[in-house]
Write a structure and sequence with these properties.
- The chain is α+β, with helices and mostly antiparallel strands.
- It has one domain: GTP Cyclohydrolase I, domain 2.
- It is 28% helix and 36% strand.
- Strands 1-2-3-4 form a four-stranded antiparallel beta sheet.
- Helix 2 runs antiparallel to helix 3.
- The radius of gyration is 16 Å and the shape is elongated.
- It starts with a strand and ends with a strand.
């Protein structure tokens, strides 16, 4: 089993339940981990034998641009896109952190994590 991952991909987005959150926006951090069983070995050094983490980043980037109320909805959309584009993915884990969420006290981040297993 091989795991390809992105850690700490940063985005500005307007996700949030309250209108103020959608208007002001916030900083978010995305972590993605995808595991798969390789069909070939890596001796020939070809990108087609693995999962391209650049594509993972582009999926996250596109989904982060779509304003949503719930972080869960964003995370599920990222997982659904990864499943569609990499049907050989065995497990997918996506964590979305909202930095400095608008709460009454100081909080570094809130987060949602969803795990998918084929």
């Amino acid at each position: 089993m091989i795991e390809v991952a992105l850690h700490g991909a940063e985005f500005f987005a307007r996700h949030g339940y309250y209108p103020q959150e959608q208007q002001l926006g916030n900083q978010f951090v995305v972590d993605i981990e995808v595991s798969f069983n390789p069909a070939n070995d890596f001796k020939d050094d070809k990108l087609s034998n693995t999962l391209n983490y650049e594509q993972l980043y582009l999926i996250a980037c596109e989904e982060m641009k779509i304003n949503r109320q719930l972080l869960e909805t964003v995370v599920q959309a990222i997982i659904d896109r990864i499943k569609a584009e990499f049907d050989f993915a065995e497990t997918i884990k996506v964590r979305l952190k909202k930095l400095n969420p608008p709460l009454k006290g100081k909080v570094e981040a809130s987060s949602v994590t969803i795990n998918y297993k084929k």
